[in-house]
């Protein structure tokens, strides 16, 4: 079995994903690549909340989830978005199996200490479930909801955090975070923004403290660092183009690669 690649698709990119994205997933699957998709669904959730006159509140890029919001999150993520992705993948020749983190208690969480309502912090991942789906020749497509420790509660978990935890549990060779920007962008003196092709924990800390990384990118890079510390070889933030997917899966540079500081030092010493 080839190394596993976890791909996180952000909700803001969902409608922008071209047919070539799904075709590339199908192509890589047929080549024997083990792929897992974890998805968000923020814009679709916002749209449904607006239709139902439920206000949306965010803290540090994370959604505050009350009981009513949780009902909508589950409906949109597990129903609308998850099955749409499965249909699109199947349409383009991939074999996909849609599940949520609650199924089989794949993701187990406790309520986060932040004042975010029913938002969970992942405590355990049952890696046997996605591995079983992979073993049957399917791409697991996972909605980021988690079961409580006793199974009686459910939690909304940030998709970046879920993808990082799943990638770590699967000991993935790469975690690809597909977003609507080409990667981490750094302001230049002339007012333009340049792509950061490679970075590590220390530089990310500086960029956050200096306000270069803000909003929804903060949980993204924090999830990336957590995944790296748990053994994932690299995390790449990039657009969901066929070119970027192929490059990352073939070990070529694309977007912003986040690597462990030790790995960076080892490469420099060679």
From TrEMBL:
Gene3D superfamilies: Acetylglutamate kinase-like
Keyword match Cytoplasm: yes
Keywords, sorted A to Z: Amino-acid biosynthesis, Arginine biosynthesis, ATP-binding, Cytoplasm, Kinase, Nucleotide-binding, Transferase
UniProt subcellular location: Cytoplasm
Pfam families for this protein: AA_kinase
Domain Aspartate/glutamate/uridylate kinase per the UniProt entry, residue ranges: 4-238
Listed EC numbers: 2.7.2.8
Top-level enzyme category: transferase
NCBIfam families: argB (TIGR00761)
Family, per entry: Belongs to the acetylglutamate kinase family. ArgB subfamily.
Purpose of the protein: Catalyzes the ATP-dependent phosphorylation of N-acetyl-L-glutamate.
Name of the protein this chain belongs to: Acetylglutamate kinase
